[in-house]
Amino acid sequence: MEQSNTARPIRCKAAVSKAAGQPLEMEEVEVAPPRAHEVRIKILCTSLCHTDLTFWRMKGFPAMYPSILGHEAIGVVESVGDHVEEVAVGDTVVPVFLAQCGQCADCLSARSNICSALPSGVTGMPRDGTTRFSLAATGEPVHNFISVSSFVEYTVVDVAHVVKVGAALPPEKACLLSCGVSTGVGAAWKVAAVETGSTVAVFGLGTVGLAVAQGSKMRGAKRIIGVDLNPDKFDIGKRLGITDFVNPNDTGEKTASEVIIEMTGGGADYCFECVGSASLMAEAFRSSRTGWGKTIVLGTEGNATPMSIPSTGIMRGRSVIGSLLGGIKPKDDIPMLAQKYLDKELELDEFITHQMDFDEINRAFDLLTQGKCLRCILWMPGAKEMNVA
User: Fold this and answer.
1) Is 218 helix (H, G, I), strand (E, B) or coil?
2) Which of 256, 206, 254 is nearest to 230 (CA)?
3) In 3-state terms, what secondary structure has residue 159?
């Protein structure tokens, strides 16, 4: 592994998205050396998140093709650019789509986790808007994705988007902390601040929703209601804290919100929307208790559809708040979550339902699209066999 003053372009394999909703294509790409404040990372393994699916399906999104998706991963620092001091070559790190510069007003405030110095964007490196990827055969630029791009053997990430985690945490577990599990647990802890003895309703029992359930249980919630169309989610949900299950297909003429209001005697104290549907966000709001019910929106609405809620509900004490990455500050909170796993206080193993080689990535997309997996770990060539896991 090379220091920044000798780093050269690297050619490696990437799963490139060339058209909305079409299978990714394995291509040889060239990855440029890191510039100032940047880190080049050798990816060990990556996983597939619903946000990747959402952007993969988008049509007509500007400057997105060809692109390298992916944002949940773990890797080892291969080289660093100038002015990088907090990580060094050989460090084990997770890249995160949300920056933490540590110096702006937002990073210094406990009220926000959205860095104002390096605001999150869809494409381009955060400091100059350019990309570090190109197709090896033609030199055509390949766009990066939400400051990470992990569906590639090597990636370049701004140091503000890198969290050092150490080698004690198994790579496939650390991978989950770069987005999904951290988002759900963080939302229960930091955004909602779920109280002991409270009631919680979780809409959508994917990785984020199940992590919300786990985080709510850890906070002492007495009743956690899971809402999902897939009855297979209830077994794993129970293991992670779900106490009751509502399938909207089985509620007859009643809506899910009507059922939840009846179950809780007035509505849940905290409702979490974890799918990314504007109509479901409104249904979660209707499920919250008048007077103090709080609805937390975590799902990514791919069409940016407005959410419609009655103003009278707001006037009567209900509230709605959105969140990126569950309100956590990546560099502060991800190492804490990693330690909780090592101390057996946080469950991660349950979320990994599949593991496969990187070149099977389109199969992983199929499984997630069909609702047949939570997290599928994709191992880069040689990483698992070399016992880095």
Assistant:
1) helix
2) 206
3) helix
Spell out the residues 6+ positions from residue 119 whose beta carbon is closer than 8 angstroms to its own.
99, 126
DSSP assignments along 260-276, one per residue? HHHHHTS-BSEEEE-S-
Query: Is the sign of the CA dihedral 40, 45, 51, 53 positive or negative?
Result: positive
Distance CA 80, CA 235 (A): 45
**Nearest residue to 324 via CA among 125, 119, 156, 56:** 119
Within a 10 A sphere around the Cβ of 306, how many other Cβ atoms? 10
Q: Cα–Cα distance between 215 and 203 in angstroms, integer? A: 15
C-alpha 69: how far from its chain's center? 13
For residue 93, give the nearest of 375, 351, 338, 328 by alpha carbon: 338
Query: Residues 373, 48, 274, 230: what is their CA dihedral angle, to the nearest 10 degrees?
Result: -10
- Closest residue by Cα to residue 302 from 325, 270, 280: 280
Distance CA 196, CA 220 (A): 4
Cβ-based neighbours of 251, under 8 Å, separated by 6 or more: 258, 259
74: three-class secondary structure by DSSP:
strand
Report how far residue 40's alpha carbon sits from residue 325's, in angstroms, rounded to the nearest whole number. 23
Residue by residue, pLDDT tens for the chain (389 residues) are 444 457 899 999 999 999 988 999 999 999 999 999 999 999 999 999 888 888 888 876 655 899 999 999 999 999 999 999 999 999 999 999 999 999 999 999 999 999 999 988 778 899 999 999 999 999 999 999 999 999 999 999 999 999 999 889 999 999 999 999 999 999 999 999 999 999 999 999 999 999 999 999 999 999 999 999 999 999 999 999 999 999 999 999 999 999 999 999 999 999 999 999 999 999 999 999 999 999 999 998 877 888 899 899 999 999 999 999 999 999 999 999 999 999 999 999 999 999 999 999 999 999 998 888 999 999 999 887 764 43
Q: Model pTM? A: 0.93
Check: CB of residue 326 under 8 Å from CB of residue 191: yes
Amino acid at 198: S
Contact residues for 250 (Cβ-Cβ < 8 A; gap 6+): none
Give phi and psi for 339, each to the nearest 5. Answer: -65, -35
Q: Which two three-digit tokens encode residue 386? A: 């070399």
* Cβ-proximal residues to 143 (8 Å cutoff; 6+ apart), any chain: 63, 64, 65, 66, 67, 68, 123, 124, 131, 133
